[in-house]
Specification:
By secondary structure, the protein is an alpha/beta fold. It has seven helices and 15 strands. Strands 5-2-1-6-7-8-9 form a seven-stranded mixed β-sheet. Strands 10, 11, 12, 13, 14 and 15 form a six-stranded antiparallel β-sheet that branches. The protein has a two-stranded antiparallel ribbon with strand order 3-4.
């Protein structure tokens, strides 16, 4: 089977490597985003997919815009049986969808039709899901609306962060994509339409998504801490300064919370380590783990308490 592989970030790399290793598959070319400046020095860096393609000596294309009319003949000349597309980062115009006879086959990090959009892993964790998964689908002109091919459930552990779940999903993606391609080639796999009535969205993350609302329960805030790692993170304000914070919900406390307001910091007097707790909504508590004031390094809650000379009653806003 002759393929073109279209992808950019690390999430797509295990699938590319898995396909490269198959004797019955030829990767005719890799399409990835143009090289971008990165870091404080603005050094030009290659995408993880480009680096993998270079290592495997696969021809690489990096169009500024894949929809540009001059790129269509390039794809047509490659004559792929299928184009695999995983986290590429550009919308594919409808006129290109008919070039591969088996279609453009996408690996999406959710159990569609749930969590259509740019950030399915993040929003599944934020919303407290315990099961997510992968879907291979034939893309169409919509946003993750194409016919589904294969699905695989993947559990979300109670403390798992978005990068951890992404790593687990990316490793599972290669075998699922390979099974999909072989099923399509053999004619034993046909797509099934999504139920649009069951669709939910997973929009691209924004900086303001990380702002903590302390009136939410500690579990809900913890889910947001896990889901918004590493970006945008979870932020609050302390004495007029923005800071990133992390923590974990606690249960079984005997602290009476009726007289405390959300965001208030209190010491757990019943704990010999004198942990600092943050009052949250629904009479719940979050044990503070780390704090990072803007422009400073991350420190432990105890270091923050000592440096800021915290007293019970101080609060996050």
């Amino acid at each position: 089977m002759r393929l073109v592989f279209c992808g950019t970030p690390q999430f797509a790399v295990p699938s590319l490597k898995h396909l490269v290793a198959q004797p019955d598959i030829e990767i005719a070319a890799v399409i990835t985003q143009p090289d971008r400046p990165k870091g404080r020095g603005n050094e030009i860096t290659f995408s993880p997919v480009k680096q993998t393609a270079l290592d495997a000596k696969i021809p690489i294309h990096q169009p500024q815009k894949i929809r540009a009319p001059e790129f269509q003949p390039v794809l047509e000349a490659l004559a792929p049986d299928a184009i695999v597309i995983i986290a590429y980062g550009q919308i594919i115009p409808a006129r290109l969808l008919t070039i591969p006879k088996l279609g453009w086959i996408n690996l999406h990090a959710s159990l569609l039709p749930k969590y259509r959009g740019a950030a399915p892993i993040n929003w599944a964790i934020v919303n407290g899901e315990t099961i997510s998964g992968l879907t291979t689908m034939r893309i169409d002109a919509g946003m993750d609306t194409g016919d589904m091919l294969l699905q695989q459930e993947i559990p979300i552990d109670a403390n798992e962060t978005a990068p951890e779940l992404a790593s687990k999903m990316s490793e599972a993606g290669g075998p699922l994509m390979l099974a999909t391609l072989r099923g399509l080639a053999a004619g034993s796999l046909t797509g099934r339409a999504q139920n649009n009535a069951e669709a939910t969205m997973a929009p691209i993350l924004k900086k303001e998504d990380g702002r903590i609302d302390w009136s939410l329960s500690s579990q809900t805030i913890f889910n947001r801490m896990r889901g918004f790692a590493p970006w945008p993170g979870t932020t609050t304000t302390f004495r007029g300064q923005t800071c990133h914070v992390s923590g974990e919900p606690i249960t079984g406390t005997t602290i009476p919370l009726g007289s405390h307001r959300p965001g208030e910091l209190i010491v757990d007097q019943g704990d010999v380590t004198q942990n600092w707790l943050v009052v949250c909504g629904d009479a719940t508590l979050l044990r503070l783990r780390t704090v990072q004031l803007e422009g400073r390094k991350q420190i432990s809650a105890s270091e923050f308490a000592n440096g800021a000379r915290l007293v019970s009653g101080d609060h996050f806003v």
